[in-house]
């Protein structure tokens, strides 16, 4: 009996230690995500003001902008650690459900977590490459949809497949915006510890931020649909190219300013999530 109680105590201690480690990894990663989105907002605002961007308006472009700052290498090292932590958290969620906060057997959620882990893992690799002084041209090329759009269009039923990919992105972007606005964030965040005013602020940041993210996904998906209908890969655009095209429209600068504001909101929300996330 004594041995069984001792073993049970060790198991509880191990679980608590694992939970603390998991929580630390998640919070560091969420804070790093916040930094990335704040820098992305700056790049989008630059497009709104000047019609072009100093760097590609993507996660990799944001890392390049960090690299150009004083002490940029040290900042990149810190971001690489944070991005690795975020990627590890999402991959762990995809593998086990939702460790540290119950379990979730939803296949769709696990696929989403897996995709998020892969994306942020790639950003971590990009940050490490910039720290080591390697060129970021390769990463910029991989984020350009034109080469693979041209490849898909060359397949049997290629335009239909490309159109399906564009439609999926449009649907996913709309779903992300709706989810961000309508979702009860108290399920993931410890909002009860905040005053009513701050709870409303955090929920508003999440809603506006996810609406901006959803708009970017819809924008890229729309250009993929255009490329599929015209059977021209040149009509497919990266986030950067799509935003630059939008900037040249009569209403473009104002709309891009709204998007930049939304991305700042999501960055700030990420900092709140790093502090308040239920883990």
Set down the secondary structure blueprint.
Elements: H1 2-50, H2 59-67, H3 72-96, H4 107-131, H5 137-142, H6 146-153, H7 158-182, H8 196-230, H9 239-247, H10 252-276
Description:
- Helix 3 runs antiparallel to helix 4 (107-131) and helix 9 (239-247) crosses helix 10 (252-276).
- The chain has helices spanning 2-50, 59-67, 72-96, 107-131, 137-142, 146-153, 158-182, 196-230, 239-247, 252-276.
- 40% of the residues are buried.
- It is an all-alpha fold and 279 residues long.
Number of domains: 2
Query: What percent of residues are in strands?
Result: under 5%
Query: What is the approximate shape?
Result: globular
The helix-and-strand class reads mainly alpha
Number of helical stretches of at least 4 residues: 10
Quick structural gist:
The protein is mainly alpha-helical and 279 residues long. 77% of the residues lie in helices and 0% in strands. The protein starts with a helix and ends with a helix.
Keywords:
single chain, 279 residues, mainly alpha, 2 domains, 10 helices, 77% helix, 0% strand, globular
């Amino acid at each position: 009996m004594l041995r069984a109680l001792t073993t049970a105590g060790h198991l509880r201690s191990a679980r608590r230690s694992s939970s603390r480690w998991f929580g630390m990894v998640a919070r560091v990663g969420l804070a790093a995500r916040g930094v990335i989105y704040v820098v992305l907002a700056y790049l989008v605002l630059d497009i709104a003001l000047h019609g072009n961007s100093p760097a590609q308006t993507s996660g990799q472009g944001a890392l390049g902008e960090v690299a150009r700052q004083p002490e940029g290498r040290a900042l990149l090292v810190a971001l690489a650690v944070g991005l690795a932590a975020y990627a590890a958290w999402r991959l762990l969620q995809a593998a086990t459900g939702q460790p540290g906060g119950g379990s979730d057997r939803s296949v769709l959620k696990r696929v989403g977590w897996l995709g998020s882990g892969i994306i942020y893992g790639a950003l971590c690799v990009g940050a490490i490459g910039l720290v080591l002084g390697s060129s970021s041209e390769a990463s910029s090329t991989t984020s350009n949809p034109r080469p693979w759009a041209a490849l898909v269009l060359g397949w049997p039923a290629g335009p239909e497949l490309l159109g399906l990919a564009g439609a999926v992105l449009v649907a996913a972007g709309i779903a992300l915006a709706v989810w961000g606005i309508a979702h009860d964030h108290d399920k993931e965040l410890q909002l009860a510890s905040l005053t009513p005013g701050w709870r409303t602020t955090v929920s508003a940041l999440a809603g506006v931020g996810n609406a901006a993210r959803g708009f970017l996904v819809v924008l890229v998906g729309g250009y993929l649909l255009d490329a599929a209908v015209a059977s021209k890969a040149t009509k497919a655009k990266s986030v950067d190219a799509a935003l630059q095209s939008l900037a040249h429209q009569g209403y473009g600068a104002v709309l891009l300013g709204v998007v930049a504001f939304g991305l700042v909101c999501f960055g700030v929300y990420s900092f709140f999530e790093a502090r308040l996330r239920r883990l």
